[in-house]
Design goal:
It contains three helices and no strands. With 86 residues, the protein is mainly α.
Length: 86
C-alpha cells in the first residue's frame, strides 16, 4: 500500500508516461509516413525499423503507465477490480 505522497507521485508519473506514449506513437507514425516517401530501399528499411521501434516503446511505456496507475489506487481496489474484470 502506498502512502498519500507516494500515491500522488505515482499518479503524476502515470500521467507523464501517458504523454510519452502519445509522443512515441506520433514518432512511429512520422517514421512510417517518411518510409512511404523513401527513395531508396535502405532508407525505407531504416525508417520502417524506426517506426517499429517507436511502436514498441509506446507499448512498453503504456504498460508501465498502467502499472503506475494500479499502484496509485487505494488498497484493495486494484485487487478487486482485477478479480471482477480479469
Amino acid at each position: 500500500m502506498l502512502r498519500a505522497n507516494e500515491t500522488g507521485e505515482a499518479e503524476h508519473l502515470a500521467r507523464r508516461q501517458r504523454l510519452l506514449v502519445e509522443e512515441a506513437r506520433l514518432r512511429a507514425a512520422e517514421c512510417h509516413q517518411l518510409a512511404l516517401l523513401a527513395t531508396t530501399g535502405r532508407e525505407k528499411t531504416l525508417l520502417t525499423s524506426m517506426a517499429h521501434s517507436w511502436s514498441a516503446i509506446a507499448g512498453a511505456t503504456a504498460r508501465y503507465a498502467e502499472l503506475l496507475e494500479q499502484k496509485s489506487l487505494p488498497a484493495g481496489r486494484n485487487a478487486g477490480q482485477s478479480a471482477r474484470h480479469g
